[in-house]
Amino acid sequence: MANNYVNVSTVPLQLSVAGYPYYVATLIDDNNFADAVWTNYTTANLTINLGTVQGWHDVWIGVRGHADDPSAAVWQWQRLKLDLTPPTLIITGPTNGTVGVPLIQLTGCSPEALNSLSYDLSNASGTLTGQPAMITGQYYSINTAEFTTNYFRACDVALTNGLNTITLYATDLAGNMTTLTTNIFCTGNPNPPAVALLWPQDGMLISGSSITIQGQVDDPTATVAVTCVDANGNTNLINGLTGRDGIFWIQNLPLNPFTNCVALTVSNAAGVTTTNFSLIQSSIGLTVNPAAAGDTTVYGSLDTPGYTVWVNGNQATDNGDGTWTAAITPLCIGGGLVAVAAIPNTDNGGQGNGAGAGVNPRSAQSLNTQATVPPPSGVFFYLVKNHSQTDFQPRNPMDADNAQTWHSFLDWQDDEGGTAGNFFYRNAHVWFPIEQDSVWPKSSWPQPLPDGVQTNYLWNNDPDDALPSCTIGVGVTGGPALAGEHCDTTRIYDAGGEFYFSTANARRTADSGAKLATGGPLGSTQMNLWVISATATDAATGQPVPFPQISIGGFGNLDTNGNLYVLLRDNDTNDVTPKVAGNSHYTFTPPTATPYRLTHLTRCTAAGNTNNARATIGIGEVVDFSGMPSNTIWSLSGAGSISSRNGSGTTFTAPLSPTNSTVTAQVGPTSQAVPFGVIPPTGLTPTLWYDVTNFGINGPPNNRIGAESWFNIQVLPTTVSFHYVTFRENKPGDTYTWPNGTNMYTLPDTNNVWWVDCDNTAQDDCVDGLYPISLLYANGHYNSFIEPCRVPLEYKNDSGDWVSWFPGRTNPCYYTGKTQTSKQCYNGSSTAYGGQEGPWQ
């Protein structure tokens, strides 16, 4: 069977038979082989009818030779589920059809296992189709030995103001399809973000040279940043990340000795909220060792006595040697913050006030530090359940006392713990029961599985043997043996080799579930490529299952190389259980999952935006792409060029004209696109660098005029870089008349070609003169005069043509008749002047 789940009553079967059968029989929901009706075997292709009753059906297929008695027939069992009903989808979140923020996590469930799930989104911005929705967990029913309820989530669904229509498409394991449409109205948040600073608090004494800021905002789309002035007067700008839960993180904020003034800026579409607070760096050394997800104990040191240390609301133990140890509630999937406070013993005996669950007491004199716990990444079993039972029937029906049942089980789940046991009993009077149970307490990945407790019972009710005995509370070293398995088998076989028995009926059910935690930086929701690989083994033959027959969660099937390429967001958890449709017993190891983080960084850091991962770039900018597997295929939509079309990385060179361009990385069926807005220069800002004081010779006879000054210039906007652009001045020929009536003509000049540094800065030399001072003399005195100097600016495009971008720029020289001096003027988006110079010899 290609699938145990069917949506038609008439089901084709194909037999794999060794030997030469002559008769064949089928039984549906009947394991009394004496009821079989035998017909001639003519083909390995059979058709059975499951009827109209939906649910699980036991199918028995028997074959025998021409001379064989029916009791010698060989029987095989298969369980098929007839499912004629499309799956039901239930949306559990958001609970309200009207939301105020333009980002939601669409959650829901289905009462049956799903094979695929996706959604379309339609709103004022357009329509997105085929967006993935992820299976996040499954409930396993012991009664029906199958995964039933599936929990799902469409992660980070971006809305627009107004009506947003979301249509879910689901297919169950039998191939039945359903759709569910829901409307979400987004009002938009009319208010700037509401911000709560979680750690640190204003005025805290901080031990250490840097900290991580944690806070909460009511809009998960908000951007966060802090500015802090260092000891040299420089302003540090550090951007943070806002998680889908509204918790934001700003890491590695440097601190200076004494008081640090910090400005936290949180922005959304409605406005900006600024929170100002101060932190004081302490000279006392309070440290905490690095902590990992799942740790239940943390360690640190304090170099000054007289304090009581608290960690996440728990009082630490002073080890007496300057170190401390504290128990904490483990931070598992999602990571978090380990906050440490040392409270002087003079403040309420080191108890401070206001302690709460997970929260340290408050004290105005406390020293504080912290450690961040990165969200873990990896594949883990979240559910393992198996049950085996064999019933032995006595050879003599009158010998009922010899009927026996052997049973074993494991029932374990992440974040819940579990039990395992086995027992044996004879007849209905529970003769000779032997029971052994193991119990494991609750634990959460990535914590190591804890030791358990085993209870051993041996009850002996045979009066000829020893008295009953019982052993309770034996420790079990290590956690349960977790393994990947799917089993749904029943086997009836001849137990004649056993002393008492004629037949045995063996039934085993087993299923394991695996999840992938994507991890990532705290607060990150970045989309990344994951390559998931898995293997499965057919338990009946011991042979590997071909890769394309293995599906992973709800993502699809492996390719012929055993890989599945999927795009998943940071800090998300998804079901990645390997499944082999139609195979009743197979084993598997946890899949391997390798992330590839598509990274793009501009080669230049812009002066006005230090984020090198920006998507708005200047004409000609160069962007390096990296982080992808070697089989990546790169493509470019729009103008510009890429250095390579194959490999783990490429380099995008933006065109020398404003436009939009998109670089796409494709691996297998998945692709990630990075769009860029390419913008041109818009102006420049000049500032005086210095005046050339030896432009001429000072002193009599003072018969010449002129000035030379150097200016620092910066091309705008400063949020991008124009380092790779070639600029020039296209000076036209100008004719002008001096006060004394002299006409002067300047020749056209296009030879002044220049470039800027990564921060768009350059230096420009402005010079005019030396001229005879007599040019200013008219009507019996020296007159003031402005010598015009038009200096239009151009840049060279990809075709080699010069493009005007600042046509009205002028750099005039001002001559003052009264003092017979002159100065340079630099006109840009603002104006800068040189100092008065001259007159010269």
Describe the fold and architecture.
With 841 residues, this protein is mainly β. The chain is 0% helix and 54% strand. It contains no helices and 73 strands. The strands form 17 sheets. Strands 34, 35, 36, 37, 38, 39, 40, 41, 43, 47 and 49 form an 11-stranded antiparallel β-sheet that branches. Strands 21-20-24-25-18-33-32-28-29 form a 9-stranded mixed β-sheet, with no helix packed on it. Strands 1-7-6-3-4 form a 5-stranded mixed β-sheet, with no helix packed on it. It is elongated, with a radius of gyration of 39 Å. The relative contact order is 0.07. The model has no long low-confidence stretch (mean pLDDT 93).
Shape: elongated
Structural class by SSE content: mainly beta
Strand content: over 45%
Number of helices: 0
Main β-sheet: number of strands, strand sense, barrel status? 11 strands, antiparallel
Number of strands: 73
Mean pLDDT: 93
What's the Cα radius of gyration?
A: 39 Å
The helix fraction, in percent, is under 10%
Which residues sit in consecutive blocks of at least 5 with pLDDT less than 50?
Answer: none
State the end-to-end distance: 105 Å
